[in-house]
């Protein structure tokens, strides 16, 4: 017998149906298979960088959205569901699932939907000390953690972070915990620069102040030991190279999608011995894999978000029925729209 609460008859899911076109579809609540549970969502977080690429049709043709997340392994083709940060409560369990899963509060790497079925091993059980809104930002905090791990900040280093969207801000908050000599951030928007300073950046500059503003902060060659490019703007990569010193490290966490990147690598870069590397959350870097796996990293992030309180970066909450309005706002008003949550 299927063990469940009284059924809800109307389920909703967000669908990207064409470039800059979002619909919210209604349908029957799904029933879990024997090895699944049914989750009723309370909140889900929009990933502004990646989801705006999908919204704007800026994902390169033929590139899977994410081969490590169920349902996101196919190349982009409208209509599609997307998203990977849902929080909810288990409201029904299949016959082969332990009954103790009922009523558990969980996080799931799943598209935006009011109800969805999942196997228990794909869910993250949430501790009591983590609120639903903080938990909804688990994927973003995990991404920031991966950037910090791949950057390997060292005692006394000078660090620059370009881009202070929600991922950049959480990366800044994590880096502020390290004993750095300087932590400098760069962003177009004054409101985001103010948030950055509040999270621990020693100084924050507008892009037009780079590289002179950064150079004034750093004695000697005026450049950083470690730089993170997290803006999603291809033009920022040249700025990132310009502020990174000889023998420095540059971590590129941005996904530019189909936007072209143009770089002048014929000058200082050629002799700089700079190490430029990509970083993406889906895999653990080989240098860490001997001691770390994704489960250990998630455990760390669950502990960290109790202190980080990433929900403090939430600027807007929309009922899921208003998803189209939320994406329009993210697309047109990035200055004041840092983190959007859908509520159910």
UniProtKB/TrEMBL annotation:
It holds the Pfam family ADH_zinc_N. Residues 167-279 form the Alcohol dehydrogenase-like C-terminal domain. The keyword Coiled coil does not apply. Keywords: Metal-binding, Oxidoreductase, Zinc. The keyword Chaperone does not apply. InterPro entries: ADH-like_C (IPR013149), GroES-like_sf (IPR011032), NAD(P)-bd_dom_sf (IPR036291). GO terms for molecular function: metal ion binding; oxidoreductase activity. Its cofactor is Zn(2+). Belongs to the zinc-containing alcohol dehydrogenase family. This is Putative zinc-binding dehydrogenase. It comes from Halogeometricum pallidum JCM 14848.
